[in-house]
Design a protein that fits this description.
By secondary structure, the chain is mainly α. It has helices at about 5-15, 20-25, 35-55, 55-65, 70-75, 95-100, 130-135; strands at about 110-115, 120. It has one domain. The chain contains seven helices and two strands. It has a two-stranded antiparallel ribbon with strand order 1-2. The relative contact order is 0.17.
């Protein structure tokens, strides 16, 4: 797992509310399904490529920020009041991220549950998981 993906997942788990079941609130980044982790990693990697093409200086500033890149990506698209936009050194990344993702609240309503195999993933019936995971981790211009 990349450091960016680990930081993204840590931010996601950190924001879980007290309303979530205890087992989900006690989960770690290592409890996520490989497919969910792959979705996070491909989304972040594609955004890095997009940002590097559009504004390499902004990407460099974000990489040199004391706050994590993956965490900033989650917070920036979750509606939780933090992210790239709230720091002078990284604020140029926010419009790029919103353009890339097609909106600014993509991760606002993520609901998690454990699958039958014990791995954490989106809370959908097993047959629907691949479709909804693909929708969550898609981006503007993603090849089919």
């Amino acid at each position: 797992m990349t450091q960016d993906a680990a930081d993204f997942l840590e931010a996601l788990l950190f924001q879980l509310s007290e309303d979530e079941p205890q087992d989900i609130r006690e989960a770690t980044i290592y409890d996520f399904s490989p497919e969910f982790i792959e979705g996070v990693e491909s989304f972040i990697s594609a955004f890095r490529d997009f940002a590097n093409e559009r504004n390499p200086e902004a990407l460099g500033s974000a990489d040199n920020s004391p706050r994590s890149f993956g965490g900033n990506m989650y917070w920036s698209l979750s509606g939780h009041g933090a992210g790239f936009w709230d720091s002078d050194e990284t604020k140029a990344m926010q419009p790029l991220l919103e353009e890339f993702s097609g909106g600014k609240y993509r991760f606002e309503q993520i609901s998690l549950d454990f699958r039958e195999d014990g791995k954490l993933d989106l809370a959908f019936i097993p047959e629907a998981l691949p479709e909804y995971r693909a929708k969550l981790f898609t981006w503007k211009g993603k090849p089919e």
